Amino acid sequence: MSNTPNKFDQLSTNSDTEFKAESNDENFIPIYDSLHSNNQSPLLHNFDQVLQLEEDYDETESKSSASGEPKFVLNQREFDENELNVETKSDLTEINEKNSSQIFSDAEDQDTQNEEVDLPVEQNDEWRSQSKHVFILSESGKPIYSLHGNEVKLIAFMGLLQALMSIIECDNENKLNFVVAGDHKIAFLHRSHLILVCVSSEPDKCVEQLELELNYCYNQIISVVTLSLIEKIFSRSHNYDLRNKLTGTEKLLTNMIHRLKSDYGMLLNCVNSYPLQFETRDQVSRIIAQQITPIRSVLFGLLLFDNRLVSLIRPKSRNIHPVDVHLLVNVITGFDTPKSVEFTWYPICLPNFDKNGIMYAYISHLDESCKTCLILLTGMCDEEQSIELNECRKRIQQKMQTQNIFQIMNLKLKDNSLKLDQIGVSELKHFLFKDNKVFQYFVSDYGLPYSQSLEEQQRIFDMYQKLYHKLHNKTNSLRIIYMQKKYETILGWQTSNFEIYATFSPLVTKDITINAINKLLEFTQKNKSKIFLSSMPTLPR
Amino acid sequence: MSSQTRSGSGGGGTASASRTCQFKLVLLGESSVGKSSLVLRFVKGQFHEFQESTIGAAFLTQTVQIDDTTVKFEIWDTAGQERYHSLAPMYYRGAQAAIVVYDISNKESFHKAQTWVKELQRQASPNIVIALAGNKLDLANKRAVSYEEAKQYADEHSLLFMETSAKTAANVMDIFTSIAKKLPKSDVNEQASRQSQNRSGVNVGGANQNQQGTSGCACK
C-alpha cells in the first residue's frame, strides 16, 4: 500500500500506519485523504459538513483557553471522541490534526454524517430500490453522471467507487472488472480519465452485458466531447468538472441506457435495418446518392424510417460503424424536436470513425409523421453548408414524394411476407437472425403467448442476451447452445456467417428444432434482399 | 431557387409591386431563458410548458409582411449551453439581426445577455440589428431584472428592447416586426458581396482540415 503511486491525488499520501488503523474494520472500506494535496479536491465540497464542525470546535475551544496549547487539547478531544466512535460503531473515523489541514474520513462515516444533516441520496429507499444504477465519474472522483439521483449529492458515493478502482489499479498492472456482491453485480470500466460503473440487481443481466452497456455510455460521452478534448482537459487539470462540457446531453445518456434494455441492434453490434422491397430501397438510395454526390463535403447520407436504417450512402473507402449509427439514432430519439424546425445542425463525434474529430450532422424529418428522417454527415462546420444541405434535402424530399416512397414505406409496416408463420413450424415462437457479413439482423414477430405480453417479450430479450454473451465468451468456445427451460426451449447458434437465437415451445424435440432452423435459414436466405441493406450506391470520394 | 440568391440573404427578388427580403436572424442567450419558446411562438403560435432544450442549432423560417415588403426570416435558434458558445460565431457571422434573450426572473441571464451583446458588437457584422428580449414576462412577480435597468442598458448600446412572454405571446410578434422594420431593405448588393467574401474566407481547405479546425474550436 505504501508504494501507491501518485495517480489519484486523494489516495496518494496516506502512510502505512493510517491504512493499518483502518484494517480492523469488518468490511474493506477505503480511506480518503481528501485534503492532502494542495489541489482543490473534488471530495472537498462534501466535507463541508465536517469542516464546519471543526471550525465550530476551533472557535469555542480557542475562546475558552489560550493559544498554542488548546490546539492540542482540541485534537486530543476529537481523537478521544473518535475512539469512542470506533468502539460503538466500529466504523471510524474522523481524525483532526492541526488547523483542520488534514482530514481522514471513510465513506461510511460520511454517510452517517450526511444522514444527520442533509438528505443523503444513498439512504433514500427509492434510490436504493432501483434495479440499475450507472455512475460516471472522473479519475479524481468528480461526479459526471448518475442514472438515478443528483450526481452532486452522490459525491461521497462516487468517491467510494473511485477509491475502489484506484486501490485495485494503483500498481498499473491490475484491472478492476467487476464485483459480485450478493444479488448485485458491479461492473467497472476505466477509460481515458473516466470511470464508469454500473450497479445492477437485475437477475437476468450478466456482467458482460453491463460492460457492453458501459461501453455505449463511454461512446456517448466521446460523441459529445471527443477523446482528444477529454485528454487535453484532464492532462491540464485532472480536477476538471466534465459536466461543463456535457450540459444538456445527460438526457442522451439516460436515453441510451433505456434503449439498451430492449434494442437488439445494440446488443448484437448491428445496424437496425428497415425491411423494404429491394426495388424501393434501391430507388431511395439512388435519389439520395444523386443529390448528395455533388456536395463534396458530405461523407455519409442516412435515411431512417421509424429509427431504422432504410438507406446508407457512404464513400467507397469508408464505412460507418453500427455503434456510430446507434449514437446518431440516440440523438434523434433523445430529443423531441418541434415539427416546425426545418432541420437541426448538430456537432457530433463518431468515435469509431474519428474519435478525435467533430462532424456535423444535418438532421431533418421528411414527412408529417416525423417517421422518416434524413441525416447528412459532413466535415464542414460552416453554417452556409447547412443551408446548402437544406436545399438538397428539399430536392430529395420532393423526389421521394413524386415517387410515392413515403406511402410505400408506411405500408411495409403491415407487410405479412416476413411474418413468423411463413416459416411454418408452430413450435417456433420467435427468432433473431444476425448476418455477420453485413452487420445487420432480422427479428421475427412473436408467437403466442409472447405476442400478448410485453413482459414476456422482455424476458425473451433477456434470455437471448445471456445466450449472446455465452456464445461470445472468450474463454469458452461453444458454438451451439440448446437449453430446455421451464417455459420454453431456447437455442443459440453461432457460425462465422451468421448467428441465430430462437425460442421454441418447452416440449419441442430436437428433430423439430433442427427442421425449424433449416427452414428459418431458407426463409432468411430467400428474403435477404428485403431484410438487409446491400449493394448501396457509394460516393466517389 | 439558386444558391446564389439564397446566400445573398440581404434580399431576394425585387419585384416592382411587392419586394421580398430575406434576412438571417440568430437567437442567443443563456440556456433555458426561452429562445426556442420565443421562436416557436413566432413561427407556430405555440407554446410548450416543458420545451426541450435545443441541441446544436435548429433552423426555422417565417415570413412577415411589412407594408409592401415580404420579409422572410431565416432563424437560427442556437443552444444556450456554454459548450456551444464557441460555435456561436458560425451563426451570427453574416447575420443581419440578432435577438439576445434573457429571463427577467434570472439576473445572471441578464449579465450573460450583456456579454453576448458585447461579443456581437465586437465581432458580428457592423450594421447588425440587435434586439434585447427580456423573456418570461409572465413571471413578473419573480422579477429580478427591472424594466428600467434593462431599458437603460439597451438605450446606451442602441439595442431594440422589449419584454416578452412566449407563454402569453406578449410582444413576441412585435419584437420580430420591429426588427423587420429596422432592417435596411436596400443595400442588397453590399450585403451579398460581403457575404461572398466571408464564404471564400471560410471554405478553404478540405473536409479533413475543417474537421480539425472545428474540434479545435470546440475545445475552448
Q: What percent of the residues of chain A sit in helical stretches (DSSP H or I)?
A: 40-55%
Query: Helical element count of chain A?
Result: 17
Q: How many strands, what sense, and barrel or not for the largest sheet of chain B?
A: 6 strands, mixed
Amount of helix of chain B: 25-40%
Structural class of chain B: alpha/beta
Note the beta-strand portion of chain B: 15-25%
CATH architecture of chain B: 3-Layer(aba) Sandwich
Task: Count the E strands of chain A.
Answer: 19
> How big is the Rg of chain A?
28 Å
Low-confidence stretches of chain B: 1-16, 187-220
**What does the average pLDDT of chain A come to?**
78
Would you state the CATH class of the largest domain in chain A? Alpha Beta
Describe the oligomeric state of these chains in a short phrase: heterodimer
Which topology of the largest domain in chain A does CATH recognise?
Beta-Lactamase
Main sheet: strand order of chain A:
11-12-13-9-10-19
- Secondary-structure element series of chain B: HEHEEHEHEHEHHH
Q: Show the largest interface.
A: A-B, 48 and 47 residues
Organism (chain A): Brachionus calyciflorus
Domain FUZ/MON1/HPS1 first Longin (chain A): 132-255
Domain FUZ/MON1/HPS1 third Longin (chain A): 428-527
InterPro entries (chain A): FUZ/MON1/HPS1_longin_1, FUZ/MON1/HPS1_longin_2, FUZ/MON1/HPS1_longin_3, Mon1
Q: How would you explain this protein's 3D organization?
A:
- Chain A has helices spanning 16-22, 48-64, 69-89, 107-117, 125-129, 155-169, 207-225, 227-236, 243-246, 250-260, 264-268, 278-292, 322-334, 383-402, 405-412, 454-471, 510-531, and strands at 31-32, 95-96, 103-106, 132-138, 143-146, 178-181, 184-191, 194-200, 298-305, 308-315, 343-348, 359-365, 372-378, 428-435, 440-443, 480-484, 489-494, 498-504, 538-539.
- Chain A is an alpha+beta fold and 541 residues long.
- Chain A folds into three domains: 121-268, Beta-Lactamase; 271-413, Dynein light chain 2a, cytoplasmic (Beta-Lactamase, 2-Layer Sandwich), CATH 3.30.450; 420-531, Beta-Lactamase, CATH 3.30.450.
- A six-stranded mixed β-sheet of chain A has the order 11-12-13-9-10-19, sandwiched between helices.
- The longest helix of chain A has 22 residues, at 510-531.
- The radius of gyration of chain A is 28 Å and the shape is globular.
- Residues 1-117 of chain A have low confidence and may be disordered.
- Chain B is of the alpha/beta class and 220 residues long.
- Chain B has one domain: P-loop containing nucleotide triphosphate hydrolases (Rossmann fold, 3-Layer(aba) Sandwich), CATH 3.40.50.300.
- Chain B contains eight helices and six strands.
- In chain B, strand 2 (57-66) and strand 3 form a beta hairpin.
- Chain B is globular, with a radius of gyration of 17 Å.
- Chains A and B meet through helix 8, helix 9, strand 11, strand 12 and helix 14 of A and helix 1, helix 2, strand 2, strand 3 and helix 8 of B.
- Chain A: Residues 297-397 form the FUZ/MON1/HPS1 second Longin domain.
- Chain A: Residues 1-22, 55-92 are annotated as: Disordered.
- Chain A: Residues 428-527 form the FUZ/MON1/HPS1 third Longin domain.
- Chain A: Pfam families: Fuz_longin_1 (PF19036), Fuz_longin_2 (PF19037), Fuz_longin_3 (PF19038).
- Chain A: Plays an important role in membrane trafficking through the secretory apparatus.
